[in-house]
Write a structure and sequence with these properties.
The complex is a heterodimer of chains A (about 270) and B (about 260). Chain A has about 270 residues and is an alpha+beta fold. Among the domains of chain A are: about 15-35 and about 90-175, Ku70, Chain: A, Domain 2 (Beta Barrel); about 195-235 and about 250-265, no CATH class. In chain A, about 25% of the residues lie in helices and about 30% in strands. In chain A, the strands form three sheets. A seven-stranded mixed beta barrel of chain A has the order 1-2-9-12-11-10-8. In chain A, strands 3-4 form a two-stranded antiparallel ribbon. In chain A, a hairpin with a 2-residue loop joins strand 11 and strand 12 (about 165-170). In chain A, helix 3 (about 195-205) packs parallel to helix 5. In chain A, about 35% of the residues are buried. Mean pLDDT of chain A is about 90; it is low at about 1-5. Chain B has a domain at about 1-35 and about 80-175 and about 250-265: Ku70, Chain: A, Domain 2, CATH 2.40.290. Chain B is α+β, with helices and mostly antiparallel strands and about 260 residues long. In chain B, strand 12 (about 150-160) and strand 13 (about 160-170) form a beta hairpin. Chain B is globular. In chain B, the strands form three sheets. An eight-stranded mixed sheet of chain B has the order 8-1-2-10-13-12-11-9. The longest helix of chain B is centred in the C-terminal third of the chain and has 15 residues, at about 215-230. Helix content of chain B is about 25%, strand content about 35%. The chains are: A alpha+beta (about 270), B alpha+beta (about 260). Chains A and B meet through strand 2, strand 3, strand 4, strand 5 and strand 6 of A and strand 1, strand 2, strand 3, strand 4 and strand 6 of B. Strand 3 of chain A pairs antiparallel with strand 6 of chain B.
């Protein structure tokens, strides 16, 4: 289980054409994320064999063969509307190569809550010039495109923007999926006291920093990897359980003590 | 809404900043939607997923399953639940905010999944204080924490007086253009750029309404299902599925209760 990655030119996972007004731009789509999770298999304890899944009828406990399995939409708990293959196929989006820009908006118009998965778009074809012209234009305007596309039988909404000097397409969640902060009301309570606000501002101000993602490591993943390696070598493991914390006794006292600690640190 | 309806938190723990502890519950901010497709037997009985062992062709119950890491083909190292638990550091019950960054400094490709945080415990004062100051200063707190066997990098953001946890990708989960091998930048042609900018301007609006982010394809299927249901065509009444209970909840209504009316 090595953590080093060999530098290979990534393969495009899809090809499409960006379209709006009279602009047409062929692009290749690449994943901007890589999976680093430690994947476990589920095994049967007794014989250490990887287990499989099957669909059973819970009344009989019998496996139901594929040709007898039907699809139903649950419209109310326990009430199903059967859908045949033809109906399900018809409900799939039309295959298309078009990444259609519906409009452009300022970046702040798209909440973080919509973002689902990022892709880089690179130029497709011999002539890269149209790609770089579009990058320059979008960069100068400081806007992002709201787009729609269909990829592998699935329809997507996305935000088209510039990241690190290249086009990035971020798949967005659909609005049916997201509950936004603006839909909810803040917790209610007594008015906050002025000195608490002042101290909290100072405390947060003392902890202001740059966002440096490289400073954070998935230590848990590292430890899981190490545990697997140790166990493979036949090492014995020690078991210790984590503890739980309770709320602060006095908010004001905790703020004061925190500020004192932060100040001491910065004067040291 | 009935009194007993409530949302079970995915995670409960403490946000700490300095020596201040803010006990919180973490709830999902996204929900399933559209048509809830199930696999059924011919008579409409909802099917269940069962594990079985192909070696001895027997059904396998939950307590007979272990987690194995494949070190070589068909060679597994077994990792027990208790063993994984020991790896959870003490901070696993805490989101320890040691640094507050400008919220807009976190690039969008880091964002993975949003959750809402609701105050837990006897008082929500510390929660409201943190939410208020972070929102005023447009800051995001960044930390790591462990939830459900996995370590997460998380940004705590405040919006509308509500704290939100957005899980972020770790730096090594994000690809850079040079990792992909994208070509080096070339200079643009001024004339072409001007033309494209004009086209961009023509299509630019200030805001984006959520109506524009609807899933029309799923809506089409929903419509078909509703039409068939109305005509009582191919309708089967059977037992509700286990999943149904979760999927027919109104997440927004439950969140309103869990967040706005907490402590």
């Amino acid at each position: 289980m090595s953590t080093t990655t060999t530098q290979v030119r990534a393969r495009a996972i899809w090809k499409g054409v960006i379209q709006f007004e009279n602009v047409e731009l062929p692009v290749k789509l690449y994943s901007a994320v890589k999976d680093r999770t430690v994947h476990f298999r589920l095994l049967h304890k007794k014989d250490r064999q990887p287990i499989k899944q099957m669909m059973v009828n819970p009344d009989t406990g019998e496996e139901v063969p594929k040709e007898r399995v039907r699809k139903g939409a649950e419209v109310e708990p326990g009430v199903f509307v059967l859908l045949n293959e033809e109906e399900l196929n018809e409900a799939e989006p039309e295959p298309s190569r078009t990444i259609s820009i519906e409009r452009f908006v300022p970046p702040e118009a798209i909440s973080h809550q919509w973002f689902e998965r990022p892709y880089y778009l690179g130029p497709d074809g011999e002539d890269e010039q149209p790609y770089w012209d579009f990058v320059a234009a979008l960069e100068r305007q400081g806007k992002e495109g709201v787009v729609r596309w269909v990829m592998r039988n699935k329809n997507y909404a996305g935000a088209l923007r510039i990241e690190n000097g290249y086009l990035m397409l971020i798949a967005l969640r659909f609005s049916e999926e997201v509950v936004l902060a603006e839909d909810l009301d803040a917790p209610e309570g007594r008015e906050l006291e002025k000195n608490e606000l002042v101290m909290a501002r100072q405390l947060i101000g003392a902890m202001v920093d740059e966002f440096e993602p490289e400073q954070f490591r998935d230590e848990f993943r590292d430890k899981v990897v190490k545990m697997v390696e140790d166990k493979a070598k036949g090492k014995k493991l020690k078991l210790v359980k984590p503890k739980k914390k309770t709320g602060s006794e006095s908010l004001e006292r905790a703020l004061q003590a925190s500020l004192a600690a932060v100040r001491k640190r910065s004067h040291a | 809404m009935p009194e007993e309806a409530s949302l079970r938190p995915i995670w409960s723990g403490t946000i700490t900043f300095g020596l201040v502890n803010v006990p919180v519950n973490l709830f999902p901010a996204i929900q399933s939607y559209g048509v809830h497709l199930r696999t059924l037997d011919e008579d409409g009985t909802p099917l269940r997923r069962r594990y079985y062992c192909p070696a001895d062709e027997a059904k396998v119950e939950g307590d007979e399953i272990v987690r194995g890491y494949e070190i070589e083909k068909d060679q597994f190292i077994i990792i027990e639940d208790e063993e994984l638990e020991t790896l959870e550091p003490e901070k696993s019950r805490d989101i320890d905010l040691r640094r507050f960054v400008k919220a807009d400094q976190i690039r969008p490709y880091f964002f993975e999944r949003p959750y809402f945080l609701a105050p837990a415990g006897k008082s929500n004062k510390a929660y409201r204080l943190l939410a208020r100051v972070m929102e005023e200063e447009q800051r995001a707190g960044v930390a790591t924490f462990v939830m459900r066997d996995k370590e997460y990098l998380v940004a705590i953001l405040s919006e509308n007086g509500i704290l939100r946890a957005e899980t972020l990708r770790f730096a090594d989960e994000v690809r850079k253009p040079e990792d992909i091998g994208l070509p080096e930048r070339q200079s643009a042609s001024t004339k072409q750029v001007a033309g494209i900018e004009k086209a961009i301007k023509k299509l630019t609006e200030k805001t984006l309404s959520r109506e524009e982010l609807r899933d029309e394809v799923t809506a089409k299927l929903t419509k078909l299902v509703e039409a068939k249901f109305k005509k009582d065509q191919d309708v089967i009444r059977a037992q509700p599925t286990v999943e149904a209970e979760e999927e027919f909840v109104d997440l927004m209504a439950l969140l309103k209760r869990s967040i706005s009316q907490a402590a």
